[in-house]
Amino acid sequence: MRSFSRRGALAALSALMAAPAAAGRALAQQVAGGKPPPAEAEPPRRQSPRPRRYADSDRCGMGSAFEVVNLSASPIMEVYLRQSGGTGGWGEDRLGDRMLRTGERLPLDPGSQRVDILLLRADDRAFLAMRQNPCAVSLISLGADDRVAIR
What we know:
- The structure is a single chain.
- The chain is an alpha+beta fold and 151 residues long.
- It folds into two domains: 1-38, no CATH class; 58-150, Sandwich (Immunoglobulin-like).
- It has two helices and seven strands; from the N terminus they run H-H-E-E-E-E-E-E-E.
- The two termini are 48 Å apart.
């Protein structure tokens, strides 16, 4: 990187304020070691966004069942589902009297509407997976790193 003296920097700044475009090119040339600055590239063209598609968007014709799997060290004591955007409660615990130990799976079929999923572990930690599309999800796992993964 090339350094400038205080006087040179002030002169360059004064030139920039007097004639911004011309001074900017001159300063760029000075910084580049006397080489002319590269020609300005044409700004990239804005592309129209591609339509969003789920990888398995046709899956709901075959059903909307998915599995919750516990890969964490602590058992999951409660699993709740509710329709996304709902203001009501979480309803009944989908595990009932049992628990989901490490490596165990719980099959669920909430229908084709988006759902929020709440997992409560034995160590009183709660994990949420919000606005899940059952038509695009086949597995929701709580990992050993205490992160919820959705596949």
